[in-house]
Amino acid sequence: MSAEPTFTAPRGMRDFYPADMTVRQAIFKAWADAARSAGFDAYDACVVESLDLLKRKGGEEIVDQIYCFKDKSDRDLALRAEMTPSLARMVAARQNELVFPLKWYTIAQCFRYERMSRGRKREHYQWNLDIIGEKSLLAEAEVIATALDALRRLGLGDAVCVRINNRALLAELLEKTGVQRDHHAATFLALDKRGKIDDDALRTLLRDSGLAPDAVDAAFRLLQVQTLDEAEALLGGPTPASQALRELFALLALFGCAEAIRFDISVIRGLGYYTGIVFEGFDAGKTLRALFGGGRYDNLLGDIGGRTETAVGLGFGDVVVAELLADRGLLPATAESRDFAVGYMTEDQRSVAIAITHALRRQDKRVDLGLHAEKPKNFFARSGKGGVARAIYIGPDDVARGTVRIKNLADRSETETSIASLTAPSP
User: Fold this and answer.
1) Domain 18-327 has CATH 3.30.930.10
2) Helix axis angle, 167-176 relative to 213-222, nearest 10°?
3) Domain limits of the chain?
4) What is the C-alpha to C-alpha distance for residues 7 and 391, in angstroms, rounded to an integer?
5) Taking the complete model, does pTM exceed 0.70, yes or no?
6) CA 413, 414, 415, 420 torsion: positive or negative?
């Protein structure tokens, strides 16, 4: 009787078995293909960062979620919780050498010690798109349209709504209702928690941040605004912040994204470095956590010692989109396809099996070579379960004739081919 397994993965961390890797690779491919299609260049950074960088630039909420430790030289280090601080550090280090605007993307493994729920793990992969050094709102349109293109490639083109706001607009509305600017940052952080905590707890947070009772009531009323027209009416007419949103909506319409876009005053984003337009992508029914989120951050490079550069970024995690694919019945096949399986009856045919396998692989075919002699019944039973298109089984009679039979496992048809033609060098 076998013993129970002793070890499991740490809570919130993930193992990826082959079936899981099939899903992950499909998501990664959609991300990378969409990014390359839009002209983004790939980059990566170290998983371990300076704790000081992440604490200062990771955002207020993330500080308590950082996996941190001391190295053997007593330095304070941490596993990255997100990618933007690392990106800013890298750009600042070579700012004089780089040609702006930059359009960079990465697929990064990130870690946060947070309460787990559906769509939320303590380890996840995140696709980041960033455009640095471009003031035009076309930068926002580009990253949002690229994210929607990745979803289209996954079969989710009609399943997502992108909710967009402008922190500058919300600041104007708060000021109009009497909330002074020195309270805005704390108010943004508190309001971003709506839906994550109940309204009574939210009211307490707002009061603790220094808002008077009437200002707390005013902040809640602002979250009832449904349209950009209503927001402009409260402000007495259009403002630069509202006009920026209208321009962005018009640009996204040119990308064919109009049906997926909504104004939403409640989208705030908890990270402190955002300075302008912010957005979050949800499944259309908003039954899951956000698929992606981002916005404009204009001060981050300057804050860590570089020259100030305007920037727009987006982060898109793998956990929620995998949940949405499962809900929609769109998960990719769990078994990776193979072009051929090659097996043999005795060790005497092994060299021929290897020669055929080698030749087919040189033609970029995916070939699963049997690693030991086996009976035909066992070979075909195994091959039939492994996502194999065609099977070649070699016995002593095949070698004597100089031919093998290639069996199509889908329709069970067979064709006979000479061993010499299969093993001939490619032209």
Assistant:
1) yes
2) 140
3) 18-327, 338-423
4) 38
5) yes
6) positive
